[in-house]
Every structure is written in C-alpha cells, then in structure tokens.
Amino acid sequence: MADKYLKNYINGALIPAESGEYLDNYNPSTGKVYSYIPDSDETDIKNAVDAAEKAFPIWSKMGLEKRFRILNRIADVIEQNMDEFAKAESRDNGKPLSMARNVDIPRAQANFRFFATAILHFSSESHHMEGEAINFTLRQPLGIVGCISPWNLPLYLFTWKIAPALAAGNCVVAKPSEMTPMTAFMLAKACKEAGLPPGVLNIVHGLGGKAGQAIIEHPKVKAISFTGGTETGKKIAQIAAPMFKKLSLELGGKNPNIIFEDCDFDQMMVDTLRSSFSNSGQICLCGSRIYVQRSIYEKFRDELVKRTQFLKVGDPFSSISDLGALVSQQHLDKVLSYVNLAEVEGGTVLCGGTKIEMDGELEGGYYMRPAVIEGLPNNCRTNQEEIFGPVVTIQPFDTEEESIELANGTQFGLSSTVWTQDISKANRVAEKLQAGIVWINCWLLRDLRTPFGGAKSSGVGREGGLEALRFFTEPKNVCIKY
Ligand code: NAD
Predict the structure, then answer these.
(1) Helix (H, G, I), strand (E, B) or coil at 313
(2) Which protein residue's CA is at the shortest distance from atom 30 of ligand 1?
(3) Which of 309, 336, 343, 340 is nearest to 323 (CA)?
(4) Nearest ligand 1 atom to alpha carbon 229
C-alpha cells in the first residue's frame, strides 16, 4: 500500500520529510492508526520556500488565461475522482461519507473553479483628478504566501485559501492539519496530473508548532492565511505582526441562534437540527447557543430533544448515519468534559452527552451522543467557550433587545442565525448583531462571492470572492500627471 506513507509535495515531487520521521494518522471511526504523515520541520519548509521562490517569476507572469486553465483542470481532476476523495475525507476525519460527498469535496472543486474564473474578471479602481492627473491601482501578487488550515473541513478549507492565492499569481507553501492530511496529499497528486508547474504549490505535512510555525517564521513568506483556533491565531499574530506580514485569521466561534415566536416553526426546526449537529457540531459556523422566545420555548425544547434523540450516530461509511465519529480521542475527551462542566455549572442535560461504545471494527472509535442542555446562565464557561462538538445549550428570552444582548454576550463574533417572519425585525436584529455573517431564516447558505470571516475574537480580515483576491495582492497606486 504505497499511500500508507504520505509524502510532502515540494518542487513538484512527492517526497518524505528530510528527517525521515513520520507521525501516526488515526482513523477516528476505529481509533486505529491507518497511515503515516511526514513529520516535517523548518528544513522542509525552507526547501518549499526555495521552490516557490524559483517558480514565482514563471507563475506570476504566465498570464491569466493560462493560470485559469490549470486551476480549472485541478477542479476537473478533483471532480473526476470525487468518490475516492470523499471516501478518503470520511475515513480521515470521521465525518459521514454522505457529507464528504455532498459538501466537502464538491466545495473543494468549486473553490478552484470559482477562483480560476474570478481572476479573469478581477479588476482594480482608477481615480481621476479633474484636469490634472489619473491614478490607477495596480494589483500585483505578493510573492510567496502561507496557507494553514484545520481538520474540520479539510480539503474544503485548504482549497478555499490555496485557490485564490494561486489565481492571484502567488506561489504557496501550505500545511493541512496533521489530523486530516489525506486529501491534501491527494490534492498534490491532482495538481501534478493537472500540469501545475513545479514549486507553484508546495504542501508540507506535520505538526502545527513545528512545520506550521516554520511557515509563519520564514522571512520570505509575505502573507499568512490561517484558519483554526483563536489561541493559535494569537500565537501566529505575535510572530507575524512584527515581521509586517499580511494576515488573514479565521478563528473560533460560539454562534447564537435567535428564534422568535413568529418564525416558520417547521422550517426552523429542520435547519436548527442541522446547524446544531452537522459534522457533529465541528463546523465553525454551527449554532451552539440557542435563544428561544419564551412563548414557544417549551414546544421548541421538546421538539429539539425528540429530534436529537432520533439522530443516528454510527459508522461514517453507513448511509443511515447522521453523525459519524469525532476527530480524535483528545477532542472527544474535551467535548465530554464540557458536558460535565455544564452539569457542575447548574445545567440540565436533556439528552445525550455520553460516549458511545461500539462493537467490532468500530470498537475504538470516538463516538458520542449529541447533547442538548438547558438551565445555564449566559456568562458561564459552557456558554462562553468554544466546545466545537455536538453540544448545544438552549435559553429562553422575552424581548428583541434581550435576545441581541444575549447573542452578543461572548468574545466571539463569527456567525449568527435569526428566525422570524417579520422582515423589519430581522433587519433590525441583523444590524445589531456583532458577527461577520447573519443568516436569516436559513443556515450555511453560502455564495462564494460574499465576504466571509469573523468579528471580535473570531478573526481578522475576510475571505471569499474579491476580498480573497484583494488579500492576496498588493495594491500600488500609480499617479500619472497630464
Ligand atoms: P488549531 O488552531 O489547533 O490548528 C489549525 C491549524 O494550525 C493546523 O494545521 C495546525 O497544525 C496549525 N497550527 C497549530 N499551531 C500552530 C502554530 N503555532 N503555528 C502555525 N500553525 C499552527 O485548530 P484545529 O483544532 O485544527 O481546528 C479547530 C478550530 O478551527 C476551531 O476553533 C474552529 O472554530 C476553527 N475554525 C474556524 C473557521 C473559520 O472560518 N473561522 C473554520 C473552521 C474551523
């Protein structure tokens, strides 16, 4: 099995880490090691940066049409191998195969297609000084950029960064999460097949504090696009800011759902179940604090508990599993510890919150029952800290003002969801919510042209559409007097 030992992708070649060391890669559905990842360090990052430096003059001057064709071809290769990619993602992450098939991999190919075409339409501004001069903004690629992504939506988020960086003419050194490296390795092969010139994209595997940090610290890496935890984001900013690197940080969340009594109850229930437990709650955009207007609180609570208990947790490869395994033993322990904490803080666990012991092949897997908790104040740790698992808290509110105060009452500001049929109320609330994204009567409906990112401790900067192309280019004003 050649692919049991994953390889770095540096200067167009698939090679082991210089140290020859490997890290274990676990299958979360069984808890067993099933492959090995290069344990890369600063030497491998240096090699990747050197390759990117050599490739930059060619790639950046290649012309938009040629870059478009190559990136579009990468999308084709992903699409042609959709099933293989989806199975690999499900095995590596523990998510249901159906989700990898319907969400993760289609979106990864869409990211390449979207930015391949977007660059053809990208334009800059000009500013006329009447009778005197004209200014225009030249937008040039930055050079070598670093892209670092987390484990929850592995290929989806990895390509969300890499595609715009490449489209804008940069060369990239990228690192996927050490917990979910498999589809990034497959992407490297797809890039070779699509004819991406050597060194344009370099994928280096390994630990965050070692390989990841070496990307941040390398003086020739001009910008960092990072998605991950808020604490890691802080560390990265501490290193990168004094080096004056451009930074885009997409960090943690603790997203509120506000449910008003005048909502479309049935539709709201369907989407609230999704926003609570999709990918076992391991999506940064999942709503984990649910605020419900008091008049419908009990009806909502009973219905949510009933539907949550009905969810099937099991083998990610089975078509009847709604939830698969959590990503790691450590993460499962962390999520379960928050359920205990909720009880210590006075909450009532209405359902779930316990580990599931499986039989046979799945015996060592990281499974838990999704939990709904009530009776907690807004300022307790359970309601303030990111859990990032299948755990939601519910709380009643009386007035519109109170709902906004509760929703804004954490350090985070990534996304929020509002359920009401009153369009004026929806707009009033949207205006006041401290979040990068407000979904009204829907959840996770994404248009790739829109700005994406968080406020407060959920991040700095925006990805998506033109925002990403602007991030990955340096604007230069050229002033011409006449
Ligand atoms: P993490 O911060 O532990 O790791 C993310 C990536 O950073 C990994 O590739 C890791 O190896 C690397 N890393 C770790 N330490 C590093 C360092 N010192 N220098 C450089 N790189 C380093 O996050 P995670 O546990 O993989 O992912 C879960 C987190 O990601 C959650 O907080 C979640 O909310 C967040 N997330 C945010 C978004 C968003 O768009 N805002 C999307 C998905 C996930």
Answers:
(1) strand
(2) 228
(3) 309
(4) 32
Q: Which atom of ligand 1 is nearest to the CA of 230?
A: 32
Structural fold of domain 255-453? Aldehyde Dehydrogenase; Chain A, domain 2 (3.40.309)
Our mutation pick for probing the ligand 1 site, out of 177, 203, 385, counting the most ligand atoms within 8 A of Cβ, is 177
| Residue corresponding to tokens 């962390």 | 334
Q: So what's the pLDDT on residue 351?
A: 98
150 alpha carbon – ligand 1 mean position (Å): 4
Among the four given CATH numbers 3.50.50.60, 3.40.605.10, 3.30.160.250, 3.40.50.720, the one describing domain 8-251+458-481: 3.40.605.10
Q: Considering only CA atoms, which of 298, 261, 267, 291 is closest in space to residue 393?
A: 291
What is the mean pLDDT of each successive set of 10 residues along the chain, which is 482 residues long? 86 98 98 98 98 98 97 98 98 98 98 98 97 97 98 98 98 98 98 98 98 98 98 98 98 98 98 98 98 98 98 98 98 98 98 97 98 98 98 98 98 98 98 98 97 97 96 98 98
User: How far, in Å, is the centroid of ligand 1 from the Cα of 327?
Assistant: 13
Show the tokens assigned to 277: 């437990």
Q: Within 13 A of 235's CA, how many CA atoms are on the CB side?
A: 15
What is the predicted pLDDT for the residue at 1?
41
Residue with the two structure tokens 């709904």: 372
Average pLDDT, the chain: 98
Residue 33: φ, ψ to 5°: -70, 130
Q: What residues does ligand 1 touch, defined as CB less than 6 Å away?
A: 148-152, 157, 175, 177-178, 208-209, 212-213, 216, 227-229, 232, 235-236, 250-253, 284, 386, 388, 414, 454, 459
* Active site (catalytic) residues: 250, 284
Whole-model pTM? 0.97
- Kind plus residue range of the DSSP H or E element containing 319: none
